[in-house]
Amino acid sequence: MKEIERFENKIELFVKRNALEPADAIMVKKMPLKLVNHYIIYLGINKGFHIFMANTSSGIKLYNYYDLMKNLKIFIPEKIEKFIGTYTERKEAVIRALSRANENSYNLILNNCEHLKNWIQKGKHKSYQVENVGKMAVGIGSTIAIASKSKGGLYTGLGLMLVGGLAWALSGDDNNIPKFQYSPTKKDIDKSTKR
């Protein structure tokens, strides 16, 4: 029990130090290599506990302190991406977040944690990481295809270009947003944005 109490105190301090408000995003990186950005969304306080949300391979989940504690042993916070907008727009962002809770539709290219973060904060279902990887694959593939002196190299380059182009094109496709499973009530909204 003492471990969770210490963790609660650390979370409280983290929220205060970073002046977190509902719909702010915490960019974390996976240890030890820190190659990929992962996003955890802060949703505010409910029943005295700070509420967080993330899109993981097991779906879009509201994190309790045990989940958050487990994740922060793997991921290290790197940066806070503040929500930009009015108080009303912030409430709308939290409504968007809550409407996707418990959705089980994670896809690395079509619906990852960055897609969710951008959709909550900006209303745009987009992943810049996927877009950049797609662009890089197109560039590398075209270089291989042009420089290749064999059919195998040409086909490899063209294949890489095709896959990269698809990833690039699908990185911001609003048609990939799953249908809402839940419509939050006014009570949910008030709880999630309580100051």
Give structural notes.
This protein has 7 helices and 5 strands. It is of the alpha+beta class. The protein folds into 2 domains: 114 residues, no CATH class; 38 residues, no CATH class. It has a 5-stranded antiparallel sheet with strand order 4-3-2-1-5, with helices on both faces. The longest helix has 20 residues. The chain is elongated, with a radius of gyration of 19 Å.
Summarize, please.
The protein has 195 residues and is of the alpha+beta class. The protein has 7 helices and 5 strands; from the N terminus they run αββββαβααααα. It folds into 2 domains: 2-107 and 185-192, no CATH class; 132-169, no CATH class.
Query: Which assembly state applies to the chains in this document?
Result: single chain
Helix content: 40-55%
Enumerate the strands of the largest sheet in spatial order, edge to edge or round the barrel: 4-3-2-1-5
What's the domain count?
A: 2
Helix/strand structural class:
alpha+beta
How many helices in DSSP terms?
7
Percentage of residues in strands: 15-25%
Q: What is the 3D form? A: elongated
Residue stretches low in confidence (pLDDT < 50, at least 5 long) are 191-195
User: How many individual β-strands?
Assistant: 5
H/E element order: HEEEEHEHHHHH
Distance between the termini: 27 Å
Summarize model confidence as the mean pLDDT.
83
